[in-house]
Specification:
The protein folds into 2 domains: 23-54 and 198-337, 3-Layer(aba) Sandwich (Rossmann fold), CATH 3.40.50.10680; 56-104 and 112-152, no CATH class. The strands form 2 sheets. A 7-stranded parallel sheet has the order 3-2-1-7-8-9-10, with helices on both faces. Strands 5-4-6 form a 3-stranded antiparallel sheet. 45% of the residues are buried. 39% of the residues lie in helices and 16% in strands. Helix 3 runs antiparallel to helix 4 (90-100) and helix 12 (265-275) runs parallel beside helix 13 (294-303). The chain contains 14 helices and 10 strands. Strand 8, helix 12 and strand 9 form a beta-alpha-beta unit. With 338 residues, the chain is α/β, with parallel strands linked by helices. The radius of gyration is 20 Å and the shape is globular. Required for morphogenesis under gluconeogenic growth conditions.
């Protein structure tokens, strides 16, 4: 019988599930985009008991178009997380490349596939067939041979809203509200951030994963639009604050970005304390090159209850990106010392 004859089961058959891996600690990684992809690429080397919880507030590019046209969760960051967990076999690598493939503009004007990622279309297809966001991601993970599972932070699309100070020609300034992740991500310096709807439901499976985890890892990633949103969603913030798991915060390699202009590494920690004062952390992992004022950073970390661990986790080269092997080594050492 054809797979697509009638309704699909919500759980993929065992024959198509990922190959069994050596189990390790139960780890939950939260974030979005390239930051979460970096931590997952490292963590998949250490454990198969891995859950990625992904922000669902993207409103730009292919994800934004699909979100607007079909009323679905933005699939882009979910796709990137799945691709990072692909099994390291010809099958897994091939499907990773398929998922990440992006259609270039065709010969005709305004082609409907222009700039869409294949993986985004595949995920939305599974959502339409199943009518269930979590089940669709399970099927996508089974197809890719993913080491672990990918879950959305909420089962409904979220919107990030931020306030940025704008200086007029006469020298006066005022706050301007920016609507959407795409605009907030290049705002320069945000003074306030909100998640809409404020009382959106968190994904039940994500809350359960946080409760059962041995370690919960937040970051790296765009601080206001990928990391902070997990603490802005009430149910998820409560789960992160009350989980018996150890909590680890992975710092970015670059702190002065289009989203965090002029901010130091310590300022990043102050942001988390400001929005979630009840949230504490056990360990903060940072590359020494990104923390020029170590005493100030250690003081900020102590305010959230954290020990600072320094380790060279950046890749060689000019771009500030994490090296999966170096990051995996740092995580391994931290886990082993817990």
């Amino acid at each position: 019988m054809s797979l697509f004859t009638g309704a699909l089961p919500l759980v993929p058959p065992a024959a198509t599930a990922a190959n069994p891996q050596v189990k390790g600690r139960n780890v939950v990684a939260l974030g979005g985009g390239h930051g979460l992809s970096a931590s997952l690429s490292a963590l998949r080397l250490l454990t198969s008991e891995l859950t990625a919880i992904v922000t669902v507030a993207d409103d730009g590019g292919s994800s934004g178009r699909l979100r607007d046209e079909y009323g679905v969760l933005p699939p882009g960051d979910l796709r990137m997380a799945l691709s990072a967990l692909c099994d390291d076999t010809d099958w897994g690598r091939t499907w990773r490349d398929v998922m990440q493939h992006r259609f270039r503009p065709g010969k005709g004007p305004g082609g409907s596939l222009d700039d869409h990622a294949t993986g985004n279309l595949l995920i939305v297809t599974l959502w339409e067939l199943l009518g269930d966001a979590v089940a669709g991601l399970r099927w996508a993970g089974a197809l890719l041979g993913a080491r672990g599972q990918v879950l959305p932070m909420s089962t409904e699309p979220l919107t990030i809203e931020g306030d940025v100070r704008v200086t007029a020609a006469d020298g006066t300034s005022h706050l301007e509200t920016l609507h959407g992740q795409a605009r907030c991500a290049v705002a320069g310096s945000l003074e306030a951030v909100r998640l809409l709807p404020e009382a959106a439901p968190a994904c039940v499976e994500a809350l359960s994963a946080i409760e059962l985890a041995d370690w919960v890892i937040l970051g790296p990633g765009s601080w206001y639009t990928s990391v902070l949103p997990h603490l802005l969603l009430p149910e998820m913030r409560q789960a992160l604050c009350h989980t018996p798991a150890k909590r680890l915060l992975t710092m970015n390699l670059a702190t002065d970005t289009k989203e965090t202009s002029g901010m130091t590494a310590a300022d990043h920690l102050h942001v988390l304390r400001r929005y979630a004062p009840e949230f504490s952390v056990d360990v903060v992992l940072a590359d020494p090159a990104s923390v020029p004022d170590l005493p100030e950073f250690q003081k900020a970390a102590a305010m959230i209850g954290a020990e600072v661990v320094l380790g060279k986790v950046g890749a060689s080269g000019r771009r500030p990106v994490h090296d999966p092997l170096r990051l995996a080594t740092a995580y391994h050492d931290i886990f082993g010392n817990s």
